[in-house]
Design brief:
The protein is mostly beta strands. Helices cover 4% and strands 43% of the residues. It contains three helices and 22 strands. It has helices at residues 96-105, 331-334, 359-362, and strands at residues 5-11, 17-21, 25-28, 36-42, 51-61, 75-86, 109-114, 124-126, 138-148, 160-169, 182-189, 192-202, 206-208, 213-221, 229-240, 245-256, 267-274, 288-289, 318-329, 336-346, 376-379, 384-388. Strands 3, 5, 6, 8, 9, 10 and 18 form a seven-stranded mixed beta sheet that branches. A hairpin with a 4-residue loop joins strand 15 (229-240) and strand 16 (245-256). The longest helix has 10 residues, at 96-105. The radius of gyration is 26 Å and the shape is elongated.
Length: 400
């Protein structure tokens, strides 16, 4: 069976320059990041001495657009990679897809490659509320290719093409875990002897999107108080590093009275299961998602990882972490007993699901499906399937 290779393409509004990319999602493996490789095809005799430039741009929005007054901006736009594509200053080593495209397109095809800098933040978007207007908070990337007379020329929108891309993290080689994540907490009470002991243990440290999280909860009541009910949450913690802001959101929850009331001198053990999904949090303002919003199968943002030898405090952008929180209600006078157990929620690496894949992961599609068109053109000779990007035109003015 011959497997076709999907290639994404987008053409400038004037139809003279076309950009081809082999993928839209680029993976950070911690020790390396997938390069942004593609091919630019320019119509014959169009440039007339001009050049084609390419750049990778990231936009970091850390405040609401409607709050920008008196010239204050709550976003940063940075060019993290830049190069001249046509005529090429150097000939990059061709990937398989680039080799096929250059052979098919002929001498008007020019390959290019860009690299993400080390510790570049992952693509994250904070879900806006119903009343929020303007662009959502988060980190976005796009590839911009334009025609200009020189390096100072910013191009014109009719000869410029932009392609939104994503940078995602996976854990390709999970480390061996010798101890399961757990937390033990005890609470004593004023004017009352004894304590209530709460122990929570997860069934593993790393979960993949769509997997259920299992937690074993053990309660030992050695006090004179009574445990009335138990609540369990999956908590998403977000840190916006630019303004040093931190907040948390519940992305899955469970409340149970099974075994309650837990009276003095008794114990109770129960295993609970939760599945945190973006589809269950569509209307929750501030929930962090991986990249774009316009897709039914969008994922919750993955836990932020740092390479070996790097300090977690060095992570930039929007830093994401997760924990499982258990709350015991001990009545009006007894208050609550609360404990958190941290874990990681990630995209799977190669071979992570050889045995069993969650149904949610099997159905997962690109989060940008709503943003891009779905027209296809088959090429049986070279086993290439072209998918068109929808228009994403820039608003800046310039000279073609």
């Amino acid at each position: 069976m011959v497997v076709a290779v999907k290639v994404f393409k987008k053409t400038t509004p004037n139809g003279k320059v076309t950009v081809y990319l082999s993928k839209r999602d680029f993976v950070d493996h911690l020790d390396r990041t997938d390069p942004i490789d593609g091919v630019v095809v320019v119509e014959d005799d169009y440039l007339q001495g001009r050049k084609v430039y390419g750049q990778v741009v990231t936009t970091y929005r850390y405040g609401r657009e409607e709050d920008e007054v008196m010239g204050v901006k709550f976003s940063k736009e940075m060019t993290i990679a830049y190069d001249q594509i046509v005529p090429p200053k150097k000939n990059p080593d061709l990937t398989t897809v680039q080799d096929k495209l250059t052979k098919k397109m002929g001498p008007v095809a020019y390959p290019f490659v860009f690299h993400f800098p080390e510790m570049a933040p992952s693509s994250v978007t904070l879900q806006p509320g119903e009343d929020d207007q303007g662009k959502p908070l988060g980190v976005e990337y796009y590839l911009k290719v334009y025609v200009g007379a020189n390096e100072e020329d910013k191009g014109h929108k009719r000869s410029t093409v932009t392609l939104a891309i994503k940078k995602l993290q996976i854990l390709a080689r999970p480390r061996a875990v010798t101890r399961l994540p757990s937390s033990v907490v005890a609470k004593g009470f004023t004017f009352s002897t004894g304590k209530i002991n709460l122990e929570v243990t997860l069934d593993k440290e790393i979960y993949y999107h769509g997997e259920q999280i299992g937690a074993n909860v053990t309660i030992s009541n050695n006090s004179r108080k009574t445990v009335r009910n138990m609540k369990v949450y999956v908590v998403q913690h977000c840190e916006v590093t630019m303004v040093n802001a931190q907040f948390s959101k519940y992305v899955a929850s469970l409340e149970t009275r099974e075994g309650c009331p837990i009276t003095p001198g008794t114990s109770f053990t129960k295993t609970v299961y939760l599945i945190p999904l973006a589809s269950s949090n569509k209307d929750r303002r501030g929930v962090a998602l991986d990249g774009r919003l316009r897709d039914d199968d969008a994922n919750l943002a993955s836990s932020t990882l740092v390479p070996d030898g790097k300090c977690p405090i060095d992570a930039i952008g929007i830093v994401i972490s997760y924990s499982l929180r258990v709350k015991l209600n001990c009545g009006t006078l007894g208050g609550e007993i609360v404990t958190d157990v941290p874990f990681k929620l990630l995209h799977p690496g190669p071979g992570a699901y050889d045995k069993e894949k969650p149904k949610t992961f099997k159905k997962m599609r690109s989060m940008e499906k709503g943003r891009y068109g779905n027209s296809y053109e088959n090429d049986d000779d070279d086993n290439i399937v072209f998918e068109d990007f929808a228009r994403f035109r820039l608003s800046q003015d310039g000279v073609e």
